[in-house]
Amino acid sequence: MPRSAGAAPLPLEGITVVALEQAVAAPLATRHLADLGARVIKVERVGEGDFARQYDSAVRGGAGSHFVWLNRGKESVELDLKSDAGRDAIKTLIAGADVFLQNLAPGAAARLGLGADVLRADHPELIVIDMSGYGDAGPYRDRKAYDMLVQAETGLISVTGTPEDMTKTGIPSSDIAAGMYALTSVLSALFRRATTGVGARVSVSMFDATVEWMGHPMYMRLYGGRQIARVGLGHAAIVPYDKYPTQDGTILIGVQNDRGWDTLTRVVLERPDLAEDARYKTNIERVSRRAEVDAIIAAETKRFTTDELDRRLADAGVPAAEIRDLEAVVEHPQLSERDRWRDVDTEVGPIKAVLPPMTFDDVELAMGAVPALGEHTDAVLREFGIGTDEQP
């Protein structure tokens, strides 16, 4: 979206990023950089491009849902990196960039002459972000690292699901974790470079990013001596914290502390006897009686409709939420009443997208078009003085 007259500049205007990327983790990082105003040149395989383009064709009957989510605002340039001309071309693009981000297989960038040491020897101000599944060393370095596999190796799957069944998360959490740490790394390196003039090489792996997110269960294992239990929608360390039945559905209630228990029972459910019962006064006692407490709360919540109970909980300040499917999220009043939807151009026509989460009060972040494969090849190569007769 063009910046309105008089608006402040976008935060990353003037920054150029060259991305040799595919799938989710790296494209997520660079899409946020594009939203923040950076120019992102996405280098893709000739004729095929980022394989996320072909994950599905759900968007307006032609475009892939992952791709339109992760690649708006970028320029697509097709290059054959198996050829000398293609490798020379990407090196020229990188020489004119502030950031080079790649998530090829470990060692692949170096074999193409795109290793961080080689690139920064000529351009010490360059920031290189190398993304991988398990890192650039260690016994798992060369293993396939799809999101589900990393969720398994990091223990995320072991704590997700019901007591009977483990499950992965419904979104690619390990990919997203790595993408967000890569984004943070770029911003941090740019900030440091502004004062030192020196770039950086940063490595970000899906494995390390997800292990970082496993802090609570990992410390329970290290110092509590136990694996936290899988409790479905519940919480391993807090009760009541689960879905509870209503007259016409369910609602999620999450009592975070003993004051919340007092408010839930005394004010919302009008059961002061539960508030005063010593067996339930502390969270430690309630966790030890999880099934009993959940049954008591379920019997009380069934007295109300979902809307009525939702209002009572909100008015009392007790944390609660309706459990919405995706159709209900698309229609969520918190999005519509805050004008969070925008139109984004794609090769299959305009699509709706939600504004980036980073909301600046003086400028709306960019939400550029989703590029067709190779859409910008000729223009970008001409701009950088690269002959197009042998390209892509």
UniProtKB/TrEMBL annotation:
Entry keywords, A to Z: Transferase
Pfam family, one: CoA_transf_3
Highest rank taxon of the organism: Bacteria
Gene3D superfamilies: Crotonobetainyl-coa:carnitine coa-transferase, domain 1, formyl-coa transferase, domain 3
Name of this chain's protein: CaiB/BaiF CoA-transferase family protein
Species annotation: Gordonia westfalica
